[in-house]
Predict the 3D structure of the following.
Amino acid sequence: NVVLYDEQIDYKNIENAKEALRNADTVVIVGTSFKVYPFAALIDFANGSADIYAINKERVQAPFMKDSFIGDAVAVFEEL
């Protein structure tokens, strides 16, 4: 589903995302500025030993990031 600005995010979806982050050993963040909450705060729930990567057209500042790729996500994934 898509959540537009000014729409509420289903609480269950946020809880499911937190649980997925706690259990993930790798997290890939694609196409975000990390400026919109509550999404931006979800990374705080990532497993402390998870490898965290970002793919975005501009540099993203996120805690505990292992690496980031600057560019179009389709091009980055094709290259990987």
